[in-house]
């Protein structure tokens, strides 16, 4: 739980009282590899800090799922659009490794916003971080070649190559597994 405080302290200093309120609402949840944290059609009710693990966000399709995001240790995870709007999710979230989460419910987060002096600041920075990640991904899909997206991913997240099946990486960069194999042969 201390990793969460360290993460939040990088955003803004937390008083002991604010931390007490925040930490009292966290619930530890542990999942095995390949567990579904959220299914299509369910409303996301958790904003979670991932202490350990890797998850993928994807849209299930009959032929091939579309993977559009990954999250790693020491980051917040959520189907945030569903969480905020309180509407059914169009995506699924699956663990790719054993995963440990510290989770807040939607109601608990609203209480933190109301009961702490720093809650809204943390919420704003978290939203801005999510926006910047999504904007960077969208711009990459519009401007970069598949090979450049792969190289960027390899440079920014080298753990992907070792821990995530290549079919998910191929889907994430918008190509077939065969296309990824050709790119990997070309650059090695």
TrEMBL record:
Q: Where is the Cyclic nucleotide-binding domain?
A: 29-114
Q: What top-level branch of life does the organism fall under?
A: Bacteria
Give the protein name, as stated in the record. Cyclic nucleotide-binding domain-containing protein
Q: Which organism is it from?
A: Mucilaginibacter sabulilitoris
